[in-house]
Each structure stands twice: as structure tokens, then as C-alpha cells.
């Protein structure tokens, strides 16, 4: 963007769209959760015909898991219902569907919003990112760990297993009582629901249906988060230069999706709007985008263009852009005397890979 919009102006433009519409929320819940149950049952019935018939149903069901996550996400921001209690109840319930503890993710995601694109406050609710200097200063084993972590297979195939199945089953270090109890409750309910399903349909059938749904929805969730913050000329700055508005409008993309995919993903493609004003419910994000000329100037990424993000590995502070490991060799040749900053001490195992 050529010029950072005025925060007061943007807040005024966003205000009308920050209002929760209870009818719209109920309508969205009804066209999101019940269809997932119907699709799950249809997949179960189709197994008696052919698994090739089952697979397309599972793909659609995975999309509806993502859509349920968007409602979960809005509940975490207290924007889906006007009532805090209603948000907490529905959010906790959908945490069973998404395998994410509501209170824990709610707290982590709040930190993500307050630190997004801040190079000095990485480590909670984000994807592990090295700057060029940090990578150059890192030990051999740390570089290897980083390369493994940033491999697409690790991020988008193993990532859902590592995060949603394993990481979210444990409490964060320093978690308060409410968050810890919420995690215990979610874990208990997940075990109860899957035990009941396994008893009713059989464990083999459960795995044949739920396995692909989990892997595909988890991969899609991570991909959406990844691509909307990691585009070539995004925004990253150190604390003294960091700006909340720039982080929102320049550090988050507008992921322009076909209307069907936009609906399935709950408008989360308007990520710049969401980061600017988390109070805007997902069904108002497009309206808020269309109402603001400055927001329409945010970086727009199509599906085809988003695939280039797979090559991005390191943030080049000097050039203010993401580069790949191949480009790093050219950077080294151009800057042989470059001074290096010490790398962060946070272990890659402590770096979560959340959904949007």
C-alpha cells in the first residue's frame, strides 16, 4: 500500500459492521453444523457401496469442519453472539468438532492479534519464522530443524497431527485455572464422543470416515493461516517500528476465493479486515471490506498466486520480503560482511501451527 490509512478513519468505517446480528448467527450455525452431521452419516451409508463414493463426501465434510471452525473462531472473539455465555458454550461445543480447546485457543489467538508481524514478539499463535540474519547465525542443527519444519509435507500433512491431536491435548505453561479446566473438559468430551462413535459404527469405520476429514480440514486450516500472513511483500517490523494498523492491513492478505470457497471458509479470506477489527463477525467481513477504500488496497492474492507462498522460507529484513533458501545463496554473495543477530531461543517444538 502507498499510504497507511488513518486509524480513526478506519475505526469509524468498521463500527457499523462490528454489530452482532443474532438471527444471522443462528442462521449460519444451522447451515454449518447440521450439514456436517448429515454429510458424516451420508459417508457412513456410502461405505456399503464404495469408498470411492465416500471420498468426495469426506472432502465436502472437511470443508464444513473448516466452516465450523470459523464459528468457533468468532466465539473466541465474542462476536458470534451478543451473550458472552452463549459464545463460550457454542465455542466449547465446537471445540469438540475442531479438536481445539476453546479457552486455550481463545487466549493464544488474542496474543496472536496483538503481536502479529512483530519480530520481537514471535512465538505464540504463529508459524515459526526465521529472518535471514537469524538463520545465518543459527547452529547447524537448528537450521536443519527449521528446514524440516518449513517443509510443506511437515507443515500441512504432519502439522495437523502434531497440533490438533497432540499439542492441544496439553495445557500451556503458565495457563490459568479456567484455561486448564477448559482443556480437561474438551479432552473428556472428545474422548466420550469418539468412544461413542467407535462403539456405534466400529473403530475401523470411524477411522475410514474421520481420518480423511481430520487430515484435510486440518491441512486447509493451516494453509489458510499460512498464506494470509506469508506473502512476498508482507509486513514485519521490530517493536519500536511496529504498527498495529500496518500489521493488519499490510501484514494480512485479502485471499480472493471463488464464492463457494469463500462461503465454506466463512469469509476468512478478508483477513486484513479481521485483523484490523476482530469485532467484525465473519458474515460482515466482506461488507466491511467493500465499504472501505483503504482496505480495498490491501494485498490481494488469488489461489494461483498463493501457491508461490510454498517457496517462502525466510524474512529478509533488508529487502522487506520473503525469500526462499535458493535466494538466500544470492543474498549471502551480495552481503558477505553482513552482521548477524542471535537467533531466538524458542524451540521449534514450542511454535504452534494454528488454523485462522
Question: What does this protein look like?
Answer:
This protein is mainly α. The protein has one domain (7-350). The chain is 59% helix and 3% strand. It is built from 18 helices and 5 strands. It has helices spanning 7-14, 22-30, 33-46, 51-76, 84-98, 102-115, 132-137, 140-149, 152-166, 177-201, 203-227, 244-249, 259-264, 271-276, 285-291, 293-296, 303-306, 325-334; strands at 130-131, 254-255, 300-301, 314-316, 321-323. The strands form 2 sheets. Strands 1-4-5 form a 3-stranded mixed beta sheet. α4 (51-76) runs antiparallel to α5, α9 crosses α11 (203-227) and α10 crosses α11. The protein starts with 6 loop residues before the first helix and ends in a 22-residue tail after the last helix.
Features:
3% strand, two-stranded parallel ribbon, three-stranded mixed β-sheet, mainly alpha, 18 helices, 356 residues, 5 strands
Beta-strand segment tally: 5
Helical fraction equals: 55-70%
What's the overall average pLDDT, rounded?
90
What is the topology, as strand order, of the major beta sheet? 1-4-5
Helix and strand run: HHHHHHEHHHHHHEHHHHEHEEH
What would you call the structural class?
Answer: mainly alpha
Q: Distance between termini?
A: 23 Å
Shape: globular
Summarize the structure.
The chain is mainly alpha-helical.
Give the arrangement of secondary structure elements.
Elements: H1 7-14, H2 22-30, H3 33-46, H4 51-76, H5 84-98, H6 102-115, E1 130-131, H7 132-137, H8 140-149, H9 152-166, H10 177-201, H11 203-227, H12 244-249, E2 254-255, H13 259-264, H14 271-276, H15 285-291, H16 293-296, E3 300-301, H17 303-306, E4 314-316, E5 321-323, H18 325-334
Parallel strand pairs: 1-4, 2-3
Antiparallel strand pairs: 4-5
Amino acid at each position: 500500500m502507498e499510504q497507511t490509512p488513518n486509524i480513526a478513519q478506519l475505526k469509524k468505517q468498521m463500527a457499523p459492521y462490528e454489530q452482532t446480528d443474532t438471527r444471522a448467527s443462528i442462521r449460519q450455525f444451522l447451515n454449518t453444523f447440521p450439514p456436517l452431521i448429515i454429510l458424516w452419516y451420508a459417508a457412513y451409508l456410502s461405505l456399503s457401496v464404495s469408498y470411492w463414493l465416500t471420498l468426495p463426501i469426506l472432502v465436502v465434510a472437511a470443508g464444513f469442519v473448516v466452516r465450523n471452525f470459523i464459528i468457533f473462531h468468532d466465539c473466541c472473539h465474542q462476536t458470534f453472539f451478543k451473550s458472552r455465555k452463549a459464545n463460550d458454550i457454542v465455542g466449547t461445543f465446537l471445540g469438540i468438532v475442531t479438536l481445539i480447546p476453546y479457552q486455550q485457543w481463545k487466549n493464544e489467538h488474542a496474543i496472536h492479534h496483538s503481536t502479529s508481524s512483530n519480530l520481537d514478539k514471535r512465538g505464540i499463535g504463529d508459524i515459526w519464522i526465521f529472518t535471514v540474519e537469524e538463520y545465518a547465525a543459527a547452529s547447524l542443527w537448528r537450521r536443519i530443524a527449521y528446514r524440516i519444519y518449513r517443509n510443506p509435507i511437515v507443515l500441512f500433512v504432519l502439522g495437523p497431527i502434531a497440533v490438533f491431536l497432540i499439542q492441544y491435548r496439553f495445557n500451556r505453561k503458565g495457563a490459568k485455572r479456567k484455561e486448564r479446566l477448559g482443556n480437561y473438559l474438551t479432552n473428556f468430551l472428545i474422548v466420550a464422543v469418539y468412544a461413542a462413535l467407535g462403539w456405534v459404527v466400529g473403530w475401523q469405520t470411524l477411522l475410514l470416515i474421520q481420518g480423511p476429514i481430520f487430515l484435510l480440514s486440518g491441512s486447509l486450516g493451516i494453509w489458510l493461516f499460512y498464506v494470509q500472513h506469508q506473502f512476498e511483500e508482507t509486513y514485519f517490523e521490530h517493536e519500536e517500528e511496529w504498527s498495529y494498523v500496518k500489521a493488519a492491513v499490510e501484514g494480512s492478505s485479502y485471499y480472493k476465493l471463488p464464492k463457494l470457497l469463500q462461503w465454506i471458509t466463512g469469509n476468512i479470506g478478508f483477513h486484513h479486515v479481521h485483523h484490523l477489527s476482530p469485532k467484525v463477525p465473519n458474515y460482515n467481513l466482506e461488507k466491511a471490506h467493500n465499504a472501505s477504500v483503504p482496505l480495498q488496497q490491501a494485498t490481494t492474492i488469488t489461489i494461483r498466486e498463493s501457491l508461490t507462498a510454498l517457496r517462502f522460507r525466510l524474512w529478509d529484513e533488508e529487502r522487506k520480503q520473503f525469500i526462499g533458501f535458493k535466494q538466500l545463496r544470492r543474498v549471502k554473495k551480495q552481503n558477505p560482511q553482513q552482521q548477524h543477530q542471535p537467533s531466538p531461543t524458542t524451540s521449534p517444538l514450542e511454535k504452534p501451527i494454528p488454523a485462522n
